[in-house]
Amino acid sequence: MTHVFHRHLRNTPPVAVAASGMTLRDAAGREYLDASGGAAVSSLGHAHPDVLAAMHAQIDRLPYAHTSFFTTEVAEQLADELIRTAPEGMSHVYLVSGGSEAVESALKMARQYFVEIGQPQRTHFIARRQSYHGNTLGALAVGGNEWRRAPFAPILTPATHVAPCYPYREQRADETPEAYGLRLAGELEAAILAQGADRVIAFVAETVGGATAGVLTPVPGYFKAVRAVCDKYGVLLILDEVMCGMGRTGTLYACEQEGVVPDLVTIAKGLGGGYQPVGAVLAQKKIVEAMSKGSGFFQHGHTYLGHPVACAAALAVQQVIHRDGLLAKVRDDGIAFGQMLRDEIGNHPHVGDIRGRGFFWGVELVADRGSKAPFDPARAVNALIKKDAMARGLLCYPFGGTVDGRQGDHVLLAPPFIASRQDLQKIAALLAESIDAVTRAAAA
Ligand code: PLP
């Protein structure tokens, strides 16, 4: 009997006891190849010596100091490093303990910005369906899965949801990708006008949709058109790169590939690579200036802001990524990985779509390839794949996103950047075995 309040209350997962490189081991001695970096967290794999050394040194020097009294050298160094490598225009870093805290902080920064500049009537957020931004109440409100919001709907911040960029299901046959992107930006504009152009705080979107969407990569020009719509109405653009940022798609920020700079960008997961809970919001100068010239105070805060050991871990992770040329590796090996997946499962009758960038790939499973009909959610295909893959020694991140208004089945692959081509090939082959075994049984 466990006293840990596990999320799934009817079953207890295996006990992890050790991890190194691409592999985790459980108490029964079983080994697992990490194909998802946890939940797209681990970028350097497990027990990287340089990160462990940086953490140990920080613990010996200064394990904790509260931000009401002090800043720390390591927090300042991390912020400098993040701004040095951030998209042009970002000026300040707000350091928190994870993704939901980062999103929550960004939503409040955006709201307070408008209060400071004399537009307090802006109270509404616009976000996208099939998105995930975290589980705290603000982040949940902008999140795009109705079934997640449902129990909490009466107590959520006001938010409207527009279509995600989801070409596999929503681009029309007679539409180019560019025309599709413009149509979506038009839908955003209509949603802003429906609320009242001066009532909207921000449009919130993952640059590359993650867990609940099975990796949704934007079509060319979509984010440029979105940025133009936001600028037209003075609406802020918040990009959530908690999952897709920090090198996961082959550039440090996924928005670099879209040619847009958001007003606020959230990061977490890959920032600390799993070594410590850490997240951040990067803000453009105008946001920080409005607060510094106005109230002089951001009305927010958490006890573990800028925790020194978390900052030391994040700084070491970022330094190793650059020192070891891992962004270029992710770009090159990511192309090869996509091809391996297409070779292994591209023709499988229950694989509807394979999409991704860098080391961030999604596989969408369908009951019928022709009609794209999802499996009956009662079949729990995604949960069965997770179980089957674990039995084969593979950790992947299957998820029930929302397909046609109900839960569908996706598998998310986000290996650590250190994965060798042999590791990637093994991931593709083991996943193919699992998909085949589970979907055949589900279709029978
Ligand atoms: N935003 C995105 C895009 C995410 O994928 C997640 C987590 O999966 C979050 C926010 C929430 O992060 P956390 O689980 O660290 O609170």
TrEMBL record:
One of its GO terms (molecular function) is transaminase activity. Gene3D superfamilies: Aspartate Aminotransferase, domain 1 (3.90.1150.10), Type I PLP-dependent aspartate aminotransferase-like (Major domain) (3.40.640.10). The keyword Nucleotide-binding does not apply. Keywords: Aminotransferase, Pyridoxal phosphate, Transferase. InterPro entries: Aminotrans_3 (IPR005814), Aminotrans_3_PPA_site (IPR049704), PyrdxlP-dep_Trfase (IPR015424), PyrdxlP-dep_Trfase_major (IPR015421), PyrdxlP-dep_Trfase_small (IPR015422). The keyword Transferase applies. It comes from the Bacteria. Its cofactor is pyridoxal 5'-phosphate. Pfam families: Aminotran_3. SUPFAM superfamilies: PLP-dependent transferases. Belongs to the class-III pyridoxal-phosphate-dependent aminotransferase family. This is Aspartate aminotransferase family protein. It comes from Variovorax robiniae.
